[in-house]
Amino acid sequence: MKMKILPKETTSIFTRDGIRLDADIYRPDAAGEFPVILMRQPYGRAIASTVVYAHPTWYAAHGYIVIIQDVRGRGTSEGEFELFAHEIEDGIDTINWAANLPGSTGEIGMYGFSYQGMTQLYAASAKSPVIKTICPAMIGYNLYTDWAYEGGAFCLQTNLGWAVQLATETAHLRGDEQAYQELYQASKNLPLSTTIPALPEVINEYGKDSFYHQWIENYQPGEYWQNLSPNMKNVDLPILHIGGWFDTYLRGTIHLYKEMAGRSKFLQKLIVGPWSHIPWGRKVGAVNYGLGASSFIDDIQILWFNQFLKGINTGIFERSPVSLFEMGSNEWRNLNSWPSNNYKFYYLASTGLANVREDSGSLTQSCPNISADDKFVHDPWRPVPALGGHATFPAGSFERSELDCRTDILTYTSEFFKEDLHIAGDISVDLHCTADTSSFDLSAVLSEVTKNGNVYNFTQGYIKVIDNNLPVTICLQPTCMKIQKGNAIRLSLSAACFPAYIINPGIDKSPGEVRLIDSKIITITVSSGKNYPSVISLSV
Q: Which SUPFAM superfamilies does the record associate with it (predicted)?
């Protein structure tokens, strides 16, 4: 039975270096002591991630002290906001304070998604004994490979959009109306056609100290990213991992889950729904996945916290540790582990016109002895646009048959299946390809093709190729998908997916050095057949 709630209490703590951090506390109106669940976030604590979660009062009514805190330099908290720089120390100071609050049992859990998921990892990395469990959703574990860059390519739209959002909030906190207005307008229509597309004037003017400039400068993996990313290598505690098939940070969620599941002595549970970053509902893109796709994360988190903060047997251990929503059947699949040991292979074959005719490029289960090369031309004047997927707005699945008619997209389509095909887990594409420049990009989109010719994407990947290293492996977003009997699958290849990723100018450069005028027309050749087996690997 839910409890009554006391009026919200606003209070503060002072960090070890004397910075005041403000928080709202929601308490049950009942006698006794209660565990604490904590969220630390940068968007103004009143929001409390209610874009995807129930309001904190809902959690408090289940017998928890709920704390929503503004991180340093955000909301009404003091200090300068510096991306992820203070989240370990500030997180531990907050946790130690929360454990000693009047009415607290001293048992701490954390929840939240995106930045609020990252603050959990940083706090947990300090190995405080009072943190009993965390529930990170949609996080970047390795901030280079799982967040800022994909396959070495700069994730332009999501990174720039986020930088503009944070700069807008900074202007709001400072009362700078002009900056706020210009940034707000930029957020509604990202300025992507400036001299240097990755560095529009608005972010140079109003985000001089932004993390964004550092992310652009450090365009290769290295010490910067190693120091910035949370280090969970010596941490072990029960974790509820939450992701979405169309979330731009799914790579990080799966990365952390695989690492923890491989070594933890505690329960690691993974839930992945057919969701984008926001919202977590039944419809994403153009596809309605049914009522079963609606979020149940609040309910599962209460069961999780009851188990690990209150010691109540909630049946969590009897549930399957991996729950994946299967698109197509629109049903949840419960597994004992991440699917990884059963693959089907589909080889590319062509008559040489896979960019012109959809019946020229094919996918076959046996490698063809003879197959013609396919050539296509990437023109930066009219780059292939992003449509759905995980790296653009709006995300999700869309009908893309018109897009696939472009001659700068190669398409390879299987025969229509005589029985259902169930895909679950990791997907990659190995391609034998060359270009007439030292660097080029490849976008790979996997779609379901219906009998009437409609084409709906369900996963995709991207890579920046340097020095024509062969073969090229593109890791697509993991997925769980049922291809209906009577339908087919299609691989679509192009050299751009704009503005999800910055356009490759034909040479390896920092995104901050890529000028619009420097972009080159690039001719790319994709080879297939016995001597150059280009192939899709599907986990089924």
A: alpha/beta-Hydrolases (SSF53474), Galactose-binding domain-like (SSF49785)
What's the confidence (pLDDT) of residue 420? 97
Distance between CA 116 and CA 93 in Å, rounded?
16
The band of 469, judged by pLDDT with boundaries at 50, 70 and 90, is low
Instruction: Give the domain 5-137+232-335 fold.
Output: Rossmann fold (3.40.50)
CATH H superfamily, domain 343-539? Galactose-binding domain-like (2.60.120.260)
Ranges for all domains in the chain classified under CATH 2.60.120.260? 343-539
Name the β-bridge partners of 489: 448
* The architecture CATH gives domain 149-226: Orthogonal Bundle (1.10)
In angstroms, rounded to a whole number, what is the distance separating the alpha carbons of residues 44 and 321?
34
**H-run or E-run covering 112:** strand 104-113
For residue 362, report the phi and psi dihedrals to the nearest 5 degrees.
Answer: -135, 160
Checking if the pLDDT of 142 tops 80, the result is: yes
C-alpha to C-alpha distance for 148 and 43, rounded to whole angstroms? 20
How far apart are alpha carbons 214 and 341 in whole angstroms?
39
SS (H, E, C) 161-212: HHHHHHHHHHHHHHCCHHHHHHHHHHHHCCCCCCCCCCCCHHHHHHCCCCHH
Q: What integer best gives the mean pLDDT of the chain? A: 96
Give the tens place of pLDDT for each residue, 356-392. Answer: 999 999 999 999 999 999 999 999 999 999 999 999 9
Please provide the distance, in angstroms rounded to a whole number, between the alpha carbons at the two ends of the chain. Answer: 43
